[in-house]
Amino acid sequence: MHTFDYPQSRMLFDRACEVIPGGIYGHFSPAPLGQTAAFPFFAARAEGARFQDVDGNEFIDYMCAYGPMILGYAHRAVDDAFRNQLALADTVSIASPRMVELAELLVERVAAADWAFFAKNGADVTAYAVTIARAATGRRKIVAIRGGYHGTHPWMQAPGHHGIAEDDHRHCIRIPWNDFAALEHVVAEHEGDIAGFIATPYHHPTFGDSVLPAEGYWQNVEALLRKHGIVFILDDVRCGFRLHRGGSNERYGFHPDLICFCKALANGYPIAALVGTDALRTVTASVFHTGSYWFSAAPMAAAIATLQELDHVDAPRLLEIYGRKLNDGLIRIAKSHGFTLRVTGEPCMAYYRITDDESQMLHQRWCAECTRRGAYFAPHHNWFVSTAHSDADLQRTWDIADEAFRALKTAA
Ligand SMILES: Cc1ncc(COP(=O)(O)O)c(C=O)c1O
Fold first, then answer.
1. Which of these, 28, 113, 361, 386, is most buried using a 10 Å CB contact count?
2. What percentage of the chain reaches a pLDDT higher than 90?
């Protein structure tokens, strides 16, 4: 099995560094990958579960654009819907009928939704949700989970991040995940001043194991929030439509007031949605929030096609089956080489860690060895699978993983 080189990627990165601060920013930045020499930085094309970089190397993609890709790249029905709408009208001076149709579709499939609102990015709708919670309650504080990610607005960032002032998160209280007693404590301590509680369906921090909800956690949270009139916000930006067709709360049995969707909603086309209950309809209409491209119709058409296709193939079931097979195989292969691969979170978007080395250097090196052989694995973030990943991809991935473990042992 030959290993890849990346001369064109490196050249582009050098050019990027001249004209873009940091070269490549945010979650696509090379820095968290650790062994950066093993990774490509620029893609030339993508189809199904695979992408090709600018050097012509092909990868089975286990990051799926960090979540937006769920049906495979260049999906025919989704891309046709996008292109057809583009030919008719996209960003225009008045709204598109696609907006109403997409809202109707979401209200029909998401039990917790009586209405829907559209934006572009996950952070657009998490920020809007928090503003609605404040407007609805007349209170200031937002409770969030320590290590939980909701985007890059100042209040969402961890204290101490560059450019973030203490005041920016003054009204954001962070508590540990799965710790119901901690929530009870802050609710008592700030009685009458907590507007909302925001959390992801389960805890999936970067550089750390994922943790599923403890038995009864969500039901206890829901009861407490209701009792104190606190708006219950589910950030389903990352998990949305992967765990359940109607929102991840259905998977874990609870009822939020607001749900934020984004990544997988249109299989890569730019759109985010906030959905909510009737009780918040009037206040939502009164909270001003908009953006230059938020009425763009082609991504709405793509979202409609994506939701229909997700149903057609029963995506959550397919993703779970592939994820389980992938994980069982990888754990078995690791064991056959004397390593322990810990897999946490839901099978279709699990977090992986070789536990034989607490520094995680070994894990970084294994992900690098896999990537330079054609299975694109980021070491610090949960991976994703799509409905386009096939049994042939699975076998190829296992073969690559096997050889990567062998390479680790040879290098040791
Ligand atoms: C759970 C969660 N919430 C919010 C966001 C922010 O989304 P965006 O980057 O589209 O603003 C992300 C992005 O990764 C996310 O995973």
1. 386
2. 93
